[in-house]
């Protein structure tokens, strides 16, 4: 597996910088990603249900402070530190074509893709000038009706699914939870399974905007 060196930092600083990078990805950002999937799954029940969920989120006390403290600041830290670690890393792929080395490269490139994706997604949602909760469903339906936009979002869902699932494995290893090849191998399979299910769930949400999603027992009015 590729090693990461940070010449500008002391070993102790590098140690904690990597772990803080891992924590921000797993806890505040990981929790937000799961909540975001849960909230957006209301799309499968139709425009009214989705608008109701958005309205409920808007009514959360101190929502702006929560977004800044629990989403935007951790995201900025995770992105900046991740890019810095990538820049300082030892690039030994494709000289050593091992599975974990390949995952190391994919983790970095999916992170770069997600940085672009987050900017575009915020421009199309948060900063699109939509004032009413009921306006989000038709707006996103129109966006997903464009083939290039749909492919771009599909790529974003694939990137976030791999980055999150592989990040869980990396975090467990980095924090010493997974010790030994067998435990790491079994956890790798579990994370891969989670990533696949997570990706399919997001694809189902995207298809739901176009009227082709599957509710899986969510029920309806």
Q: Regarding CATH, which class?
A: Mainly Alpha
Rounded to an integer in angstroms, the radius of gyration calculated over CA atoms is: 19 Å
Shape category: globular
Largest sheet report: none
The portion of residues forming beta strands comes to under 5%
CATH homology group: Fumarate reductase/succinate dehydrogenase, transmembrane subunit
Classification by helices and strands = mainly alpha
Distance between the termini: 51 Å
CATH hierarchy: architecture:
Up-down Bundle
Q: If you average the pLDDT, what whole number results? A: 88
Poorly predicted runs of 5 or more residues: 1-6
The tally of strands reads 0
Order of helices and strands: HHHHHHHH
* Total domain modules: 1
List keywords for this structure.
221 residues, mainly alpha, 3 helical TM bundles of succinate and fumarate reductases, globular, disordered N terminus
């Amino acid at each position: 597996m590729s090693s990461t060196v940070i010449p500008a930092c002391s070993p102790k600083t590098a140690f904690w910088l990597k772990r803080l990078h891992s924590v921000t990805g797993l806890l505040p950002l990981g929790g937000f990603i799961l909540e975001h999937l849960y909230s957006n799954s209301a799309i499968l029940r139709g425009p009214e249900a989705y608008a109701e969920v958005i309205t409920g989120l808007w009514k959360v006390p101190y929502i702006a402070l929560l977004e800044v403290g629990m989403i935007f600041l951790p995201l900025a830290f995770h992105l900046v530190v991740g890019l810095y670690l990538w820049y300082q890393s030892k690039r030994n792929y494709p000289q050593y074509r091992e599975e974990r080395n390949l995952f190391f490269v994919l983790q970095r490139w999916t992170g770069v893709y997600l940085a672009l994706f987050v900017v575009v997604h915020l421009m199309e949602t948060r900063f699109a000038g939509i004032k009413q909760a009921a306006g989000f469903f038709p707006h996103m339906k129109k966006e997903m009706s464009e083939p290039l936009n749909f492919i771009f979002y599909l790529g974003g869902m694939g990137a976030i699914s791999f980055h999150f699932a592989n990040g869980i494995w990396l975090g467990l290893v980095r924090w010493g939870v997974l010790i030994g090849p067998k435990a790491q191998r079994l956890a790798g399979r579990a994370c891969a399974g989670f990533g696949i299910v997570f990706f399919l769930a997001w694809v189902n949400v995207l298809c739901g905007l176009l009227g082709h999603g599957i509710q899986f027992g969510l029920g309806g009015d």
